[in-house]
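Example record

One chain of 178 residues, shown exactly as stored in the release files.
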Amino acid sequence: MDYILPKISRDQAYQILRRPPGVLKKKKEIKIEIFYLPSYIVDVQVKTQQGLKVQSLCIDAVLGSFAFFELADVTTSPPEKFSVCPFFLSETDIQARAIEEYRRHLLHVGLKMRYKFQIDHVLSCRPIYYPFWIGYFQRQGSVDFDVIDAVGGEHQGAAMRPVFMKALLNEGSAGSRG
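Predicted structure tokens for this chain:
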């Protein structure tokens, strides 16, 4: 299985997670760990007015959330300490989700820019583990969490929260916890 290599170090992640998005939020004491979300990289060929293009998409294998994917460093050697959860969605489910979500995106962009796009076909669909830093903290007497992308450092918003909740509830430690 392939693993995307994190670009954000543990120290960088700690600093990012200590200053959550929002002006009025206080800094918090957190415990962080690296978590590898099971995902698929789907390469889709698209017909445009300029010719054929290839777009890479990243679809999580937990609930099927869609994101654009840019080339990242990949390894087949897992890191020493990491947690994962199982792949809930099959490759067939992922390909259908990728086409559906990307068609929706292209329709939105096409209407805005008056371009015509047509999905030609799926070129490839490969399973990977994508890294995220998760910060756990106390909030009003209970435990909460924030998540950042371990490649780009972006906070993951409300749309990804259900994905991580399901993933964390079904995680199995593949290595010792960090």
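Notes: Helices lie at 10-18, 91-113, 161-169.
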